[in-house]
Amino acid sequence: MNHFLRTASMSAITIQQHILSEQQRFPGASGEFSFLLSGITLATKKIQAQVRRAGLTQILGSAGNENVQGETQQKLDVYANEAMIDSLAMRGSVGVLASEEDEHAIVCPNEEGDAKYAVVFDPLDGSSNIDVNVSVGTTFSIFRRPDDACLSDPDRWVLQPGNRQIAAGYVVYGSSTVMVYTCGNGVHGFTLDPNVGAFILSHEHMTMPRQGSYYSVNEAYSNDFPSHFGDYIQHVRNGKLGRSYSSRYIGSLVADFHRTLLRGGIFMYPPTQTHPEGKLRLLYEANPIAMIAEQAGGIATDGSRRILDLQPNAIHQRTPLVVGSEVEMREFESNFCPANSG
Ligand code: AHM
Ligand code: MG
């Protein structure tokens, strides 16, 4: 008996086991939600398999068309989008999907009454980096269907503020493939074991350090930022937060945020002249990152307002994003945000 208990407690916990145990906290949970999340893990395993072999197959490079944002679609963008849609659309509980790669929300071919959830995602964020072997990622966010929403109005399912997300996460295809997710009960990280083909719990109850020593921003645009962003960066560089900082900027949101989650610090994508509303998308980039940041003890704003309280008006709406550790974020909010600093 002792031997059995010892073996069981030492065994690896897969993401499916973890989600099932989380689900037991909710009386009457039917298993649909864990089935939905297993659709996401399946799709991301398919995506990572292509990412890992990208130089060996004919999947690198442009697909020869543009997405709704006027950005060149990479072949891997198209593959990743199809993998997500194929893996989610037939799960009976999913009614609506919305993707960075599709102009409109997608209505899933399910019985209306069975569908309880909407999933929004960026299937392959940072994909312009893929040809040079830099980390990329998938972001996702899950909403419950609003009470009065029906499938004839799919936008109603997804145009909800981030504080209504019931789960959110990302997968970073880096030196290993890691999925980080939250269902509102802390943040957990799972590393894909390529020998087994399963995501194994590797980072339980992740918390962001109170203060880090990296700031992360595309400084090439600093002449374009509203001046308080530049002033803040200078303040950080001058050691005013009590320590010296280094800069890190990959240009791949998931990878830049993953480092910020683990090491602390601050990531900023301010408004620029090219992107006066910010570049990142509220629904499927900023919202999932913000939910994870808050669940891990960090803070996420658009420079003045909490990201999770922003009411989206359009699926592909953009937002500035400032996210990170408590110390860096409080300093920005108190002394550099025009709304607070007068
Ligand atoms: P994408 O969704 O088209 O891949 O663009 C989003 C990416 C983010 O991953 C990253 O934070 C940002 O664009 C980098 O932009 P820039 O090259 O302007 O710094
Ligand atoms: Mg993106």
In short:
This protein has 342 residues and is an alpha+beta fold.
Task: Kindly describe this structure.
This protein is of the alpha+beta class. It folds into 2 domains: 11-203, Fructose-1,6-Bisphosphatase, subunit A, domain 1 (Fructose-1,6-Bisphosphatase, Chain A, domain 1), CATH 3.30.540.10; 214-335, D-Maltodextrin-Binding Protein, domain 2 (3-Layer(aba) Sandwich). The protein is built from 10 helices and 17 strands. The chain has helices at 2-10, 15-23, 32-52, 75-89, 154-158, 227-237, 253-263, 282-295, 326-335, 338-341; strands at residues 62-66, 72-74, 94-99, 106-107, 117-125, 136-144, 165-173, 177-182, 187-193, 198-203, 214-216, 246-247, 266-269, 280-281, 299-301, 318-319, 321-324. The strands form 4 sheets. Strands 4-3-5-6-7-8-9-10 form an 8-stranded mixed sheet, sandwiched between helices. Strands 12-11-13-17-15 form a 5-stranded mixed sheet, with helices on both faces. Strand 11, helix 6 and strand 12 (246-247) form a beta-alpha-beta unit. The longest helix is centred in the first third of the chain and has 21 residues, at 32-52. The radius of gyration is 20 Å and the shape is globular. It starts with a helix and ends with a helix. The model is unreliable at 1-9 (pLDDT under 50). Bound molecules: 2,5-anhydro-1,6-di-O-phosphono-D-mannitol (AHM) and magnesium ion (MG). Magnesium ion (MG) binds at residues 100, 122, 125, 285.
SSE diagram, text form:
Blueprint: H1 2-10, H2 15-23, H3 32-52, E1 62-66, E2 72-74, H4 75-89, E3 94-99, E4 106-107, E5 117-125, E6 136-144, H5 154-158, E7 165-173, E8 177-182, E9 187-193, E10 198-203, E11 214-216, H6 227-237, E12 246-247, H7 253-263, E13 266-269, E14 280-281, H8 282-295, E15 299-301, E16 318-319, E17 321-324, H9 326-335, H10 338-341
Parallel strand pairs: 3-5, 11-12, 11-13
Antiparallel strand pairs: 1-2, 3-4, 5-6, 6-7, 7-8, 8-9, 9-10, 13-17, 14-16, 15-17
The protein binds 2,5-anhydro-1,6-di-O-phosphono-D-mannitol and magnesium ion.
Magnesium ion is lined by residues 100, 122, 125, 285.
